[in-house]
Every structure is written in C-alpha cells, then in structure tokens.
Design brief:
The complex is a heterodimer of chains A (132) and B (204). Chain A is 49% helix and 0% strand. The chains are: A mainly alpha (132), B alpha+beta (204). At the A-B interface, α3 of A face α1, α3 and α5 of B.
C-alpha cells in the first residue's frame, strides 16, 4: 500500500516507539547493534540489508507475530503503532542512500505526505463497540 | 521469600548509558559487566501453586514432584532482557541428555498475565523452539501469580501495556521442592545451570 511504502520521515511518536520496543536489539540506526544484540543467540539483522527485500505485509507480520527471539507486538500495540513501527523500519533501511536516489521520488513523497493517512485508513477512529 | 535487588528497567537504562558513553576499546569488558548475572546458593522452600499452561490446562507444581525444575520469569512482549533469559532456558533444554529429560522440567512463568494468555505463550514458546514434553509456560489469574512471584522473590511492576519491570530471575529447584540455586541477571549461563542441575540430580 502506498501509505506505508513511502514514509513521511521520522516523527517523535515513531522515535519513542522505536526506543521503547526496538532499540535494545536493533540499535539506534537499525544496524542490529543494540546493547542487547551481542548477547542474543542470533544477531539482529541490519535493516539496510534485509528490509528492502521484504514486502510491507512481511514486515508487518514480523512485528505483529514476532520472529525467533523477537517479541510479537500484535497483542500490545494498536494498528497505528504497528504502522509507525513499520515506517520507522523502512526509514532506517533507506539511510545511506545518496541524494540523487531520493530526488527521483520527490513528487511522490510530497503527494503522499499531503494525504491525512491516519484519517483515510481509520487509525484515529475509536475501536468499534461490540453489540450487546 | 528472597530479597532480590535490581529491576529490568534499571538494567535497561544502564545498558543504554553504557552503550552510548563507553569507549569502543573497552567494549568487551563492558559487555561482560552489562550481562553479569549473579549466582547464589540458597535453600528456600517453594509453596505449591496452581496455574494454567500454554495449552490452557491446569498446572500444579505438586504434579512435578521428584523432578528437578529450572524456573524463569519472563513475559512475551518484553523487548528487554527476557529474550536472553528464555534463550538461555532453551539452551538448557537442548543440553539435557535423554535420561535427564525424564527427570528435569523447565517452567517459564509470565510476569504479564494481562497479555500472556495460553495461546500467546504457546506461540512464544514455539518461536524459541521449546519442546513441550518437559517445558511448561505458565500464566493464570493475577492473584495466583502474585503469590508465586512473592514466593520466588520476584518483584513485578506494570508500567504500561506490554511493559513490565520485573526481577530477572532464573532458579533451579531440587526434588524436595527447595530452591537451591538462583541466577539474578539478564544472561544466566546455560552451562552453569546444567552443572548445578546435574549436581541436584545426583543427590539422593
């Protein structure tokens, strides 16, 4: 989906979520070098190597259901938070690209960021109440 | 009850600060300090308890009498040291011989019953490759779990949805239902646990 394929960059909400749930293993830049990484049985991946090869649904599945020793965040995060985490992962995976690569997508990024995606996707709506 | 200092979140803060401000040349030494886990010999009787396992079935400690138990406390959405603790338990299970498997049982007891249903615990266990023949993942009503946590000296403090501070405890219990070894810290050594467990198996 376009909404999560092209992110609008980092915001404080994404940073806070990443610091709380991801930093310890994945590290500040997503290189897989967080303070716990050295003690894990499998070193976390460098997002620059792995995330570009994965679809959003694959990344969302890993975040929601966990993977190996990575926790499953589906039971504790909202859909909006999972979306933020996905965008943060995408963002970190693109760090290091040269400016010319980004400039190709300027028009698309500006168009995308002008859309109120949270409203369009219903993430800012209260959850539906079950019928009694 | 045993008094065990230190909580996961304090440790986490220390890990972050160390990672950010330590010079690169001392990284090896720092890592050793960060993951230091204290081993203590103790003799603490454990009261019987009833909880629910990963299949949703009742679990009673008394049914594992005459077995040596390796017990750890974790919760499934923990993005702190729980993955290290559960991974160490998995290595302990892998290191058991066929005859030891019949006499040793592992328990992982949740510190977050709000989230950790039997189904979520089962999925967590599978991600670690746990074999359920001698490893149970336990949850239950908070009132029952609080008694267990207290009996083991595990302090638990919920900070938010899926964020829980708790004492990072792994312990080995003998066949007379006494805690004999406790490991307090993020990275208990599976080889040390196996050696301690074997010493208890050899006791008559």
């Amino acid at each position: 989906m376009l909404a999560v394929f092209v992110g609008c960059g980092r915001n404080e909400r994404m940073d806070a979520l990443y610091a709380q749930r991801c930093f310890n293993c994945h590290g500040a830049t997503g290189h897989g070098d967080g303070p716990l990484a050295v003690a894990l049985p499998v070193r976390p991946p460098d997002f620059r190597d792995t995330v570009q090869k994965k679809s959003n649904s694959q990344i969302r599945k890993a975040i929601t259901e966990g993977a190996g020793v990575m926790p499953a965040f589906g039971p504790v995060l909202s859909a909006a938070e999972i979306n933020d985490m996905l965008q943060m992962v995408r963002f970190l995976s693109r760090e290091g690209r040269d400016l010319a690569w980004w400039e190709k997508f300027d028009t698309l990024i500006v168009a995308h960021c002008s859309v109120p995606w949270e409203t369009v996707l219903g993430y800012d709506q209260p959850p539906a109440q079950d019928e009694p | 009850m045993i008094a065990i200092p230190g909580r996961v979140s304090k440790l986490s803060v220390c890990l972050v600060l160390l990672a950010l401000f330590s010079p690169a040349e001392s990284a090896t030494h720092d890592h050793a300090q960060q993951f230091k886990t204290e081993r203590r010999k103790v003799r603490i009787p454990v009261k019987d308890f009833k909880l629910i396992d990963q299949n949703g079935k009742p679990f009673e400690l008394e049914n594992l009498s005459r077995k040596v138990l390796v017990i750890s406390f974790s919760y499934t959405s923990c993005a702190d040291v729980c993955p290290l603790i559960t991974a160490a338990a998995r290595q302990v299970q892998s290191g058991l011989t066929a005859s030891e498997r019949a006499n040793v049982h592992l328990l992982t007891i949740t510190t977050d019953p709000e989230i950790d249903s039997p189904r979520i615990l089962a999925a967590y266990a599978k991600r670690y490759g746990a074999e359920f023949s001698n490893w149970s993942f336990l949850t239950g009503p908070e009132v029952a779990l609080k008694k267990v946590w207290k009996n083991f000296g595990v302090r638990v403090s919920r900070k938010g949805r899926g964020i829980v501070e708790h004492t990072p405890l792994t312990a080995v219990m003998d066949r007379q239902r006494q805690l004999r070894f406790v490991y307090i810290g993020p990275s208990p050594d599976p080889m040390v646990i196996l050696a301690d467990m074997r010493a208890l198996l050899a006791e008559r």
